[in-house]
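Limitations

Structures in this collection are predictions, not experimental determinations, and the ligand pose is part of the prediction. Treat each record accordingly. The example that follows, with inosinic acid as the small molecule, is included so readers can see exactly what is and is not provided: the inputs are given verbatim, and the output is the predicted complex.
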Amino acid sequence: MSNLIVLGAQWGDEGKGKIVDLFSERFDIIARYQGGHNAGHTVYVGEQKYVLKLIPSGILRSGRVAVIGNGLVIDPVALMAEIEMLEELGVDVRGQLKISNRAHVIFPFHRMVERISEDSPEKAIGTTSRGIGPAYEDKIGRRGIRVADLLDRDNFKAHYTGNQQDKRKIAAAFGIPATDDDVLAKYAEIAEKMRPMVCDTAALFAAAIRAGKRIMLEGAQGTMLDVDHGTYPYVTSSSAASGGACTGTGIPPTKIHGVLGVSKAYITRVGGGPFPSEDLGERGEFIRKAGNEYGSVTGRPRRCGWFDVPLLRYTADVNGFDSLIITKLDVLDGLDQVPVCTGYKIDGKLVEEMPASQSALARIEPVFESLPGWSKPTAGITDFNKLPAEARGYLRFLEERTGVEIGCVSTGPERNQTMVVKGSRMEKLLGA
Ligand code: IMP
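Predicted complex:
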């Protein structure tokens, strides 16, 4: 029985939503382990488009349990809006969703204090402005309010009021207007709606593992946005890399059997921060248009660039990828040449390791190689051998240079526009 982690190998938006949704039919439980409603997982089922921000993509398969693990930060208002949106589309959310009593709660005062840094051009990192970072700050600062505390009718008010007063003092010191009125009654009402779904999800996982159930752990954002391993400080505030799956759920490392990385056939990033293989020219614009590269949560145009081999080698090391899923191959259809970043130079010298300092990250000069493009479309192809020879050559090149097997390729947004490579390690791990 394999419990697997599926996570982003780049800066997020790799197409994890579709992949998790597709694979979820092979699992009993699908769980998120970090982040909040800053994620945007887009899934198409037939004509219907779903954008999931907080709830695991597995919710779209009936009969599967979807879990919001303890590593997340939950905005109850956003959670209820997402539940209602899914229920209107016929999804049995309340029957399938479980929420950790140890997850932390986002309050309006978190968004209020986020403005202190994000309103300042020198300090801004281009966050999603959802209060994610300040909520994690409170968690690590040991003053956060967890779901169990939100449901504690006798003590919630005191917890909340103390915290709110502190945040108001901070906001006032920075000249930020208070925007956190009317919270207590509203949150108490939502807490009652959440109560039937809340439980000790670590205990739920332990019982499921004992019963031989299969669990898929769904990463949000991507490894290069991980608070430790990403392009710090231009990162999110949680542990998106595979290690976060254990702390964010309570599932021990000994019960995880594989890690699958999701990467686009090119690369994108939203928000500020270093981006070595970014293409600011016409070809970057071509990718943005062909790939519809606009943020699913914020609508911001994504920065676009070419597949980055050193970055992927690094994220493969940090996560221990068993196999890679390459998405959006069809977006590159029609290009004469496809550039690939195959090395990094800093101050004219090739570097082997991912630099850590902000200034070194900003000074990376990419080394590009160019591969022949393909004129025949790959869109919708589901047999590796039917891909144009150049597209196969491109994928083989990525596999060779990154040192990680490509076990799955996606050639369109629909569930059925995907191939699992025959005889791959991925096929074995999925039990396909
Ligand atoms: P935060 O997560 O809102 O604090 O934003 C921190 C950084 O992570 C910003 O650069 C965001 O654009 C980026 N980010 C957060 N969530 C996502 C995501 O789901 N996809 C891509 N980028 C994200």
